[in-house]
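Q: My collaborator sent me two sequences in one message, no labels, and asked for predicted structures for both. Can we handle them in order? The first one she listed is below.
A: Yes, handling them in the order given. First sequence, followed by its structure tokens:
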Amino acid sequence: MKKLLFACLGCGLIAVSCKKSDPAPNPVPATPSKFFTFTPGVTWYYQTDSASVNLGKDTLTSSNSDSLINSKLYHIFNGTGTSGASQSFYNITGRDYYQYTSLSAQLPPLDLHYLNDSLPVLSNWSQPVSVSQSGATLTGDIKNIIAQKGISLTVNGTPYDSVIMVRTTIENANIDYSGQNITPSITQDIQNFYAPRHGLIKRLLKLNISIAPIPIFLPNGQEIINTNRTTSLMNSTVQ
């Protein structure tokens, strides 16, 4: 149960990658979008910190390839970092932005809807999640709200204008384990900042998930995850 909750609720809010599937035989040339850039060769350099401690650096480079996954065309980005080489998959349909990603390495990927650049402030959308593992079933919703729009933000000394801030929350989380319905306690503050052409420029992730004591099943309770980290765009080759 501990592994299930950590995998589903914790890692799903941090960018992770999954392997390419059903490659398109003739990739369609990538098109730059307002809040992301698909131009081949463009590279982003990120750093993640926790309590002023550098947790590592990651790079993301736009490839010249696309992949057809579940009848949707995703542009492929190649990544490097402390966990090694990886690939990320992004799609833009109209004004909606998606990432094909796994909530954890143990779970199947999903089409994560992380941004709509046309919505006004306070607009929101929710995406249901339901997964089963090791006899436990987790259900819940990933809710996103346009908290701010058109703001200015300086990240690592670089000023960005027309930034959109999306606040993400985990709602209605419930675990069915051996007939027991368990509602975890969640304290969270998850903010994602997106700038024109650059995409993600900053992420604040404060998340604590715990379970109160449950007789027989979990008599002492359990703190599942307690994280407080910031991911920042250090620089990029975006023009």
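Q: And the one she listed second?
A: Here it is, processed independently of the first:
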Amino acid sequence: MLRCFDPSVDGRELDREPFKFRHQLMGHPALELDNLAKAIPSLPAEYVKYSKGLMRNGEDFENCNILHPSQMSLAETIECMRTSDSYVMVRSPQIHESFQPVFRDLSGDVEHLLRQMFGQRERLLIKPQLYLFIASPGSHTPFHIDRNSTMLLQFRGSKQVVLFPRWEPQVVTDEAREAYAAYDNTKLPWSDARDAFGQRFDFAPGEGLHIPFIAGHYVQNGHDDVSISMSIIFNTPESQAQLEALQFNHKVRGLGWRPAPVGHSAGRDQFKSFLWRARRKVRHTLNLPPDN
């Protein structure tokens, strides 16, 4: 029984294609501005990034708080969000007690959907985590890719998300995708010609969007209101193997190899994942620093 997503969501579509759906969390007290104004400033500083909101495709989204620092405090930024041209991103708001119930419910829903795809296997939901986004009207989130699967839920304001095919090398080259997966280079090249591959999704409060694992995307918030959205991110056994295969490829490419791209052979990706995990285990046993 789904508690957060509309019952029509089909778990067998996860990580295959993007799709819109409706969610059932409108009016949840954790997402009200009064609670956000109290909860977010109480979180550890490393969990909250805030910056100017008018960024462009081609900028390094993961370092936006360094490249476009806000001149206001976090509390002032949230209070003046409608007029301050600001962007706030909160990692793991579930560490605050007000978000723990919704995190449990969302995790349970995703687990239910994954069992539609994978059956009654163990450890289907890998590293679930919430992300919270608050943005001024008209803010732009630059083109980037995620190292996980995402269910993005809109609570206030409107936005358009432009999504791209996951493994299309004319959008993101194999080398750039691997470096991003390995946390080695998070600034993706951009040209407007890439827009020809994009699929546009407009959505409003009460709606959600599934963003498949490693699918490139950017976000344009509407000019009508402050945007509040929240996502639950996670990996599946399949996407975790692909992530590790991408990290394996990046490492061996640096040694002069030309590995076959990820995403075209599940067996090959699984084998690379096995090798990458074995390498990590050996490094841990030898007390060597991790690669990422």
